[in-house]
Automatic annotation (TrEMBL):
One of its GO terms (molecular function) is cysteine-type peptidase activity. SUPFAM superfamilies: Cysteine proteinases, PGBD-like. InterPro entries: CHP02594 (IPR013423), NLP_P60_dom (IPR000064), Papain-like_cys_pep_sf (IPR038765), Peptidoglycan-bd-like (IPR002477), PGBD-like_sf (IPR036365), PGBDSf (IPR036366). This is TIGR02594 family protein. It comes from the Bacteria. The keyword Protease applies. Residues 150-172 are annotated as: Disordered. Residues 152-162 have a biased composition (Pro residues).
Length: 262
């Protein structure tokens, strides 16, 4: 899913304390149409989401307030990976918005990919009791309008759909529902194998995803146990009062399971 690819590539982008500002965060604002933003201390969860969905060609709220997403897309009861989730004390008091990534084991928490989460782009968990709604976005109609109203300057022959496999046409919501298989919610898998620096594979990627959700940033999961993963493991071990050797072992796994089961 393009939205997830775009947003997850920004994991680790952080605010800069003090008078300096992260140019990347200001770029989100400028490219999303919020020219007035000149500080990375401006609440930017909605700004980041506007930037990401516009890059993905989806509907945007075009408003810096998290509340604005209550009117975007379609309200849904059963979210799928990549839908929009809104948190607040009530439906009229939304304080955060992000991309739904899944539930915790007991469904007490919702894992969310978003901006301005601990002053950065990351995957964080929020209390499920604070969820005020889920929204499903559709393609931005203005993107279709731009294509129709801006043909190439040099006239081109128009082949039939049968002879041009690359030509695509906007689908109706009904067609999308029929043709597009439902996206499965990401299932959190905590590896049982012992893992160390230099290891590679699916188990390492699962470990990286679990570490990010638990709040130990190791960057975008890539299946390679490198310096970032080792650093996150050591931070986890220090918090759990475990020997900080940077190796994922049984004691480390049990503490990680404890954190993610809350």
């Amino acid at each position: 899913m393009r939205l997830l690819e775009i947003a997850s590539a920004e994991i680790g982008t952080k605010e800069i304390p003090g008078a300096e500002h992260n140019a990347r965060i200001l770029q989100y604002a400028q490219e999303a149409g919020f020219d007035w933003v000149n500080s990375d201390e401006t609440p930017w969860c909605s700004i980041f989401l506007n930037w990401a969905v516009q890059k993905a060609g989806l509907q945007a709220s075009k408003d810096a307030r998290a509340q604005s997403w209550m009117e975007v897309g379609e309200a849904i009861a059963q979210p799928e990976l990549g839908d929009i989730v809104l948190f607040g004390s009530s439906s009229n008091s939304i304080y955060h918005v992000g991309i739904f990534m899944g539930y915790s084991k007991e469904c007490h928490f919702v894992f969310t990919l978003g901006g301005n989460q601990g002053d950065q782009v990351d995957i964080s968990k929020f209390a499920a009791s604070q969820v005020q709604g889920f929204r499903r976005l559709i393609d931005d109609p203005s993107k279709i309008f731009e294509v129709e109203m801006n043909p190439p300057s040099v006239p081109q022959p128009t082949p039939s759909p049968e002879t041009n496999p690359e030509e695509t046409f906007p689908e109706t919501p009904e067609e999308k529902e029929f043709h597009q298989p439902a996206l499965e919610t990401k299932i959190l898998v905590i590896p049982t194998l012992k893992l160390k620096f230099g290891d590679k594979g699916v188990a390492v990627e699962d470990l990286q995803y679990s570490l990010n959700i638990a709040g130990f940033d190791c960057g975008k999961p890539d299946g390679i146990f490198g310096p970032g993963t080792a650093r996150a493991i050591r931070d986890l071990q220090l918090q759990g009062k475990i020997n900080p050797n940077g190796t994922y072992n049984k004691k480390t796994r049990k503490f990680l399971e404890h954190l993610l089961s809350k």
